[in-house]
Amino acid sequence: MENEAAGESSRVAMPPPNTGKLITILTIDGGGIRGIIPGVILAYLESQLQELDGENARIADYFDLIAGTSTGGLVTAMLAAPNKDKRPFYAAKDITPFYLEHSPKIFPQIGGPFSGLVNLTKMLNGPKYDGKYLHTLIKGLLGGTRLHETLTAVVIPTFDIKRLQPVIFSSYEAKSKPDLDAELADICISTAAAPTFLPAHTFKNKDAQNNEREFNLIDGGVAANNPTLIAIGEVTKQVVMKHEDLFPIKPMDYGRFLVISLGTGNAKNEEKYNAKMAAKWGLLSWLTHNNSTPIIDAFNQASADMVDYHNFVVFKALHSDDKYLRIQDDTLTGNLASVDVATKENLGGLVKVGEQLLEKPTSKINLDKGVYEPVENGGTNKEALRRFAKILSDERKFRYSNAGSRLI
């Protein structure tokens, strides 16, 4: 009966952080088709929550904030956007099938012996893909849903190529800054607009004085491919501003944060570049080399690793490292490391990567060696997710009890 009651209660928004012990955050990196990897991880996490609280449990019922960049921004919207019943539009188990179905149409593959030359010619004259299918898909999926309507707070970073500055779309800001309360579809299209791959996106939105603001946006990975630090910073800012859901939490009370940060994999261990090669590269080689885009790989991976390193150090210093979980795989090779090789074989391979990642030890970044290393006595990622699911479930129940709410 307890499980059934808890499952039914997941239909009701979780009481805010100021009624609980923790501030719960989920973040998802950018990475194109590699969004399949966190999709597999999220499906497992949600299954564990359902074992504890019933089949109606959804990811958005347990996290105060979900943040995602690029493909992670799309996953964020899928988890947090409401359907007609005011429940999450997608269950976590539906994310991977979504990618398997639509990726080949978003990134249509060119076969034949001249495919490399064709792709290079396209990239010299514009983005590799026109984005039309992706735009139609996202607008059909999210309709006119706006940022303020998400079932839990979300943060999705983008970058304004006209102003040369990041634009962070945050649910917390939507009420006080109406110009940022854009349609989720426009936000997702923008954060996924990876340079050289997909076209930049422009749209207009009105502020409180009915003045139009024009956005000229590209991939949020330019600002933060790993959005975890932005997510923590956004919550901290709201604590300082005494947001009604967070007051009277103290601004420096970082020990309350519980963070699950999901990567989309990379090819670090493959070591496919070196200085001797790069020393000879001109503009074209930095843009396309061996079915990769070195300049984008470098920027995205540098920012993601620095964020992970910072968070691991801070949580360790606060004796809260048991509340920070980063799941990442840096052993991808060949097409598995690409953002757009959407063949049936490669997409299936990414599903296996996600499944195998669950069985791998929890890990942390070693910046000296540039690779992830197992955490001592950390167990597997699957075991860690089970532990975090129990913490999340207990936190949700505690908030209901503390808020004087009754489980339905």
UniProtKB/TrEMBL annotation:
Q: Give residue numbers for sequence motif GXGXXG.
A: 30-35
Q: Which domain of life is it from?
A: Eukaryota
Q: Where are the transmembrane segments?
A: none
Q: What keywords are annotated for this sequence in UniProt?
A: Hydrolase, Lipid degradation, Lipid metabolism
- Residues at the active site: 70, 219
InterPro entries given in the database record: Acyl_Trfase/lysoPLipase, PNPLA_dom
User: Where's the motif GXSXG?
Assistant: 68-72
Pfam families, A to Z:
Patatin
Q: Tell me the ranges covered by the PNPLA domain, including all copies.
A: 26-232
- The listed location of motif DGA/G is 219-221
Which EC numbers does the record give?
Answer: 3.1.1.-
CDD domains for this protein: Pat17_isozyme_like
What is written about domains in the entry's comments? The nitrogen atoms of the two glycine residues in the GGXR motif define the oxyanion hole, and stabilize the oxyanion that forms during the nucleophilic attack by the catalytic serine during substrate cleavage.
Protein family according to the UniProt entry: Belongs to the patatin family.
Function, in words: Lipolytic acyl hydrolase (LAH).
Descriptive protein name: Patatin
The gene name on file is PLP2_5
